[in-house]
Amino acid sequence: MHYSEVAAVMGISAWTAYALLRELERAGLVKRSYAIPSGVRLGGRSRILFSPTATSVPVAELADALARAVERFAPIADAATAARVYLAETLHEANGDLTLHLGFWMGRLEAAGRSANEAMRGVLESGAVPAAKIQTLAGMGLGAELARLGRTRLADRVVGTVTRLAGRVEEAQRGSDAALGALVEAARATLASQGNSGRRAIT
Q1: How far apart are CA 103 and CA 45, in angstroms?
Q2: Residues 92 and 133 both lie in one domain
Q3: What gap in Å lies between CA 192 and CA 203, rounded to an integer?
Q4: How deeply is 163 buried, as exposed, middle or buried, from its count of CB atoms within 10 A (0-12, 13-18, 19+)?
Q5: Considering only CA atoms, which of 67, 59, 68, 98 is closest in space to residue 186?
Q6: 140 and 105 in contact (C-beta within 8 Å)?
Q7: Residue 171 resides in a domain
């Protein structure tokens, strides 16, 4: 549909609706096409139309899986223990599940405290593309964990997981941003629902 139709349904300006649809397009959730209205002479102005992408990504299911991963890793006070648990789980991961990786880094950022949580929220609410948001969160989490892990073989192994995550994100981006966009939306939903949870750290 045309963005003016979206504007009419939502009760917002046409330009605001257009901006929202472009954001969804960058996330891979809608696609843009051009059509010349019937009856218009050759060379007439085309209309910009938006439609949902063919791939439907279940954001609610992703949010549930992501929340479980965050809840698993955030309460672990000791960085080395958290890293070992994470590395052990990635050994059994056969399908390249990005929710486990993003959930780990979100959990460790949550464990780092309020300022890290605010920084995480800022990244998720920024105008960056989904792939950049995911890689930024992983980089932030890595920086926080390396300070606690020190120069160890365990730290080197954790660095390797971020490198592999970057490759998987880039591969997913080449196919379609829809899955990455849905994962970012799931991350935002998870952060919103868990912002006031107040977990107790365990060792």
Answers
A1: 46
A2: yes
A3: 26
A4: exposed
A5: 59
A6: yes
A7: yes
Q: Give the residue carrying structure tokens 């950049």.
A: 132
Structure token pair of residue 107: 């959990």
The single residue listed with the structure tokens 């605001």 is 16
Phi, psi of 202 (to 5 degrees): -125, 160
Please report whether residue 74 resides in a domain: yes
pLDDT tens for the 203 residues of the chain, in order:
888 888 888 888 888 888 888 877 776 677 788 776 555 454 556 678 888 765 555 677 778 888 888 898 999 999 999 999 988 887 765 445 788 898 999 999 998 888 988 998 899 898 888 889 999 999 999 998 998 888 899 999 999 888 888 888 887 777 666 778 888 888 888 888 765 454 434 44
Q: Looking at the structure, do residues 156 and 128 belong to the same domain, yes or no?
A: yes
**CA–CA dist 195, 121 (Å, integer):** 10
Residues 41, 79, single domain; the answer is: no
Q: How far apart are CA 20 and CA 23, in angstroms?
A: 5
User: What domain range is 115 assigned to?
Assistant: 59-194
Q: Are residues 110 and 10 in the same domain?
A: no
Torsion sign, CA atoms 97, 102, 108, 114: negative
Integer CA distances (angstroms), 141 to 2, 69, 137, 178, 196, in order: 41, 14, 6, 24, 20
The Cα 184–Cα 161 span in angstroms is 19
The answer to whether residues 181 and 124 touch, using CB atoms and an 8 Å cutoff, is no
> Domain check: are 46 and 68 in the same one?
no
Does 199 fall in a domain? Answer: no
